[in-house]
Structures are given as C-alpha cells and as structure tokens.
Amino acid sequence: MGKLMRNMLVMAKDQTALGTPATLAAASNAVLVKSAMPSVIDGAFVKRELIRGAMGNYGSDMAEVYRTLEMEVELAGSGTAGTKPGVSPLLLGCRMTETVTAGTSVAYAPATSSPKYLTMDCDLDGTLFKVTDAIGNLSMNFDVGQYPTLKMNFIGAYVAMTDRTMPTGAVFTTQKKPQVVNKANTPTFTLAGIALPTASFSLDLGADIAWRELVNQNGAEMSDRSPTARMRVELSSVATKNWGESIRLGEEMALSILHGTVAGNRVGLSCPKLVVNAKPTISDDRGVAMLELSFDVTPTNGNDEFTLTYT
C-alpha cells in the first residue's frame, strides 16, 4: 500500500554540539508545516571510466552522502508576546540569533559565527527520514490574499531510513493561525518611508550552504550569505517616488513591515538598507501598471541586514 503524504510529521530540535544528535519528542519538538519533502539519499557520484577492449558501462559509487529536507511553514506567532514561536529551532538552524524580551518580543537576525545545528525527523507514514548536524537557508513571503510563509531547505548528515510507528501526541500550541496578508491585517508596509500599494514581497537569506567531503572531516557548512529581496508595487507618480533617479543614484531604502493585528501573533520585518540590484520591469495587473523590483539587502554594521520580530 502506498505511503500517504498527508500522514507526515516533522520534528526539529537544536543540538547541544556538532556531532551530538538531539533526542526528539512529538509533544515538545513537532513543527506544523504546510509541506515537507525529504530526500531518500543525496550526494555526489563518481563514475568508473575504463578502457578494456569493449564498450560498456562499469558503474558508479557515491563519493559523498548526505540528506536534504525542504519545508514550508506559516509565518505566525506563538500566541504570547515574548514566547518563542514553534519554528524557533528552524530559524536557529538557518544561522540566526535569537533575542527574547520577556513579555514583549522574540527577535531574529542573521549571524556569522556560532552556528546552531539541528536534528530533524521527518516521519512519512511509518518511514523515518532522519537528518543530523543540519543547517539551512530560508526565504519569507508576503503575498496579498495569502498567508505569509517561511520556506526552508536544510542539509545535514545522512541516517539510514527505518520503519517505525508514527509518533503520537504532537503539540502545535506555539504556532498560531496567521492572518491573511491584506490592507486590514498588514497595518505597516513602507519602503523609504512611503506606503506603496504592494502586491507581494519576498526576502531570501541567500545562504551558501553545501556539504563538504574531505579526508578526516565532512559536514554541512555555510560559507557566505547574500540576502536579496523582491517586491511588486503599483507604479507611482514621480512626485511620490522617482524610481529612475532613485535607482540611478543607488539609493539605500529602509523597509518596514508589520503583519498581524493581535498581540502574540504579530510579525515584523525591518531592513535598514535595500538597494535595487537589477533593471526594474513594468507589468500589467488587470489594467493597472505594476513595478517589479529586486534588491540587495545590505547591512549597516554587520549581521543586521534584517530583523524578524515576533510581538
């Protein structure tokens, strides 16, 4: 009988150290996801190339072995201001710092040092796909008429698949239902201090993550990040925003987003410096001119390209 994709459970927990897998429990480590896709096995193959007096194929071997796990989760709070959201381990695994202000907020910002590694279980209808020492990249999406989301892809150490009974007792109380992105539910959405009519915004951490295989050492590593963003807005008058001149002069524009109207389930995103990095394009949205922009997300002092804050 086939495996049912809806009968899936994802769990994640940050490890105390690299090489020390965490112990997972559905009651405390389950993550509510929109979708998840583990790899059976991942890596690079090396092919035998032989000359032996006849044509033929002489097989391949795996030169490196790891596992990947992709997922999408809703971008929503825990329900209580100052309480970590259920996706906290996932954000830490994407090399983000976490700052908790009791009763007020939990803030995340990109980091360069002190990475966190995750142990993750993906139970797919009785088959366990486990990955340890995992790190990831993330992107976030605010699309009008949709729930805001985080998309993440992780890479880590391969563990052989096993059959087991599906875990029970999963608890998702720190992942509340998000509000749809629209005028009423997204009270703040400004770029360069201007409240532009906006259809979509996305930000990608741009983490350069890969598996490195060496003699005496292997593992997943993040060697750099290059955050970028994309935005689709109504084309404004020149008096409101002279986009041509702004782009020509390399203007650094601050972004501010606040989504959600209920305390404990509000999410804010701030970026101090967005700089357009490509030629903008104009598109037609039911007869209305839209401007599509792409940006480099740049730091001020370092490790402050953006801040994601739950309040």
Set out the fold topology.
Layout: E1 8-14, H1 26-29, E2 30-31, E3 35-38, E4 42-47, E5 60-74, H2 88-93, E6 96-101, E7 105-110, E8 118-124, E9 127-143, E10 149-158, E11 162-163, E12 188-191, E13 198-204, E14 207-214, E15 217-225, E16 228-234, H3 243-248, E17 253-259, E18 267-276, E19 281-285, E20 288-298, E21 307-310
Antiparallel strand pairs: 1-2, 1-8, 3-5, 4-5, 5-10, 6-7, 7-21, 8-9, 9-10, 9-11, 9-13, 12-17, 13-16, 14-15, 16-20, 17-18, 18-20, 18-21, 19-20
List keywords for this structure.
311 residues, mainly beta, 50% strand, 19-stranded antiparallel beta sheet, 3 helices, single chain, two-stranded antiparallel sheet
Notes on the protein architecture:
The chain is mainly β and 311 residues long. Helices cover 5% and strands 50% of the residues. It is built from three helices and 21 strands. The strands form two sheets. The protein has a 19-stranded antiparallel β-sheet that branches. The chain has a two-stranded antiparallel sheet with strand order 14-15. β17 and β18 (267-276) form a beta hairpin. The protein is globular, with a radius of gyration of 22 Å. It starts with 7 loop residues before the first strand and ends with a strand. The model has no long low-confidence stretch (mean pLDDT 97).
